[in-house]
């Protein structure tokens, strides 16, 4: 009997210890910290901007800390203060060191975090080279005493096409370097384009094989599903949002034979520059069965209403003033602007992400037969 009790005690001791085995360990030092603690949060759903608070990490008198966690491998953020946070992609068994001083932030011990940081450096360089240089040219021309509208229009089109090139470069980086690293997850916020769905599906399938039980796997699979559902030939989901006057208007209530579902914002230069094209199409074809349903991803009502008035947007305009967390943006996988969907009277997507002259020409061609 004593032997049996001893054996049970040993088993319970081992079981309890197994439950306490840490997933990962964080340690490091913060030079001259503003406060004596850090916060660790999980980036549960980056598109919805949903986070889960994990723990408060206290610093000693020298600004040092060390703590182990029994948490799921995931994408986390170590919040140092209101201005500084450190992205951390933490996998099983990693012992990660974070050191912050006057020279910057250093993270070691997590190959996944290092890969994410490399991706972010590449992304910043690509965006600067392909997009931000064009934006500065547009701004400079706009500030001229006599700005050239044709030049601004040409640069605007170049900005949109260059942004697509930027996304292609990001996909190439992912293909060449990411593999099945957990760092794949934060890159998914910029996944776009049905021409890439097969590629994304292969990525996620391989990821699921290695990380079957992780919540990240489910989020990534759901992302691919949404991209598939909002591809050409797919049927859009309904949207119900409020107009500037507070009346709720459904997409299904205003849809006609041909409807452009437009996602835009007052701060989006390319969106604003497309206003004249939309205005021409609306004025010319609205009586013939063409409608525009514009969803603003603004968060500032004053800015939204100001843009509506200045750009003479007289068609259906709605917003929840929630930015990219607007449920419609999530449902339609909109993570960058401008973005639009051209749908028929059944809600089937005919075209998407089409702008400027290409949009105007397509609408004119389709309206001929109406």
What does this 3D model show about the protein?
By secondary structure, this protein is an alpha+beta fold. 44% of the residues lie in helices and 24% in strands. It contains twelve helices and 15 strands. It has helices at residues 2-19, 111-142, 149-178, 184-187, 197-210, 215-229, 251-254, 269-273, 275-285, 301-310, 327-331, 356-368; strands at residues 24-30, 37-45, 50-58, 64-69, 74-79, 85-90, 94-101, 104-108, 240-242, 248-250, 258-264, 290-296, 316-319, 339-344, 349-352. The protein is globular, with a radius of gyration of 25 Å. The termini are far apart. 31% of the residues are buried. Mean pLDDT is 92; it is low at 1-20.
Topology, number of strands:
15
Strand content: 15-25%
Spatial extent as radius of gyration = 25 Å
The overall pLDDT average reads 92
State the shape.
globular
The quaternary organization reads as single chain
């Amino acid at each position: 009997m004593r032997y049996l009790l001893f054996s049970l005690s040993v088993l319970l001791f081992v079981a309890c210890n197994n439950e306490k085995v840490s997933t990962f360990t964080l340690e490091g030092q913060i030079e001259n910290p503003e406060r004596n603690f850090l916060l660790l949060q999980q980036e549960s759903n980056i598109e919805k901007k949903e986070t889960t608070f994990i723990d408060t990490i206290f610093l000693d008198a020298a600004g040092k800390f060390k703590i182990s966690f029994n948490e799921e491998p995931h994408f986390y953020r170590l919040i140092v203060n209101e201005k500084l946070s450190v992205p951390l992609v933490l996998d099983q068994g990693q012992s990660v060191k974070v050191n912050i001083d006057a020279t910057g932030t250093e993270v070691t011990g997590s190959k996944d975090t290092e890969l994410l940081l490399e991706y972010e450096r590449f992304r910043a360089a690509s965006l600067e080279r392909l997009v931000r240089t064009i934006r500065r040219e547009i701004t400079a021309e706009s500030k001229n005493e006599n700005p050239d509208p044709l030049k601004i229009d040409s640069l605007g089109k170049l900005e949109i096409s260059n942004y697509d090139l930027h996304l292609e470069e990001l996909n190439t980086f992912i293909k060449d370097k990411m593999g099945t690293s957990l760092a794949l997850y934060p890159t998914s916020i910029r996944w776009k384009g049905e021409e890439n769905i097969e590629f994304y599906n292969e990525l996620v399938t391989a990821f699921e094989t290695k990380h079957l039980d992780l919540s990240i796997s489910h989020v990534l699979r759901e992302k691919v599903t949404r991209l598939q559902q909002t591809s050409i030939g797919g049927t859009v989901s309904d949207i119900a949002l409020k107009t500037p006057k507070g009346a709720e208007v459904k997409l299904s209530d205003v849809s006609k034979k041909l409807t452009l579902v437009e996602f835009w914002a007052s701060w989006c230069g390319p969106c604003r520059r497309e206003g004249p094209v939309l205005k021409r199409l609306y004025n010319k074809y609205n009586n013939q069965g063409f409608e525009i349903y514009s969803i603003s991803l603004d968060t500032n009502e004053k800015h939204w209403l100001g843009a509506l008035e200045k750009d003479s947007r007289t068609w259906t305009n709605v917003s929840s003033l929630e930015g990219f967390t607007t449920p419609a943006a999530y449902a339609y996988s909109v993570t960058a602007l401008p973005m639009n969907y051209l749908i028929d009277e059944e809600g089937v997507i005919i075209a998407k992400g089409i702008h400027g002259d290409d949009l105007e020409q397509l609408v004119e061609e389709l309206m001929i037969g109406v």
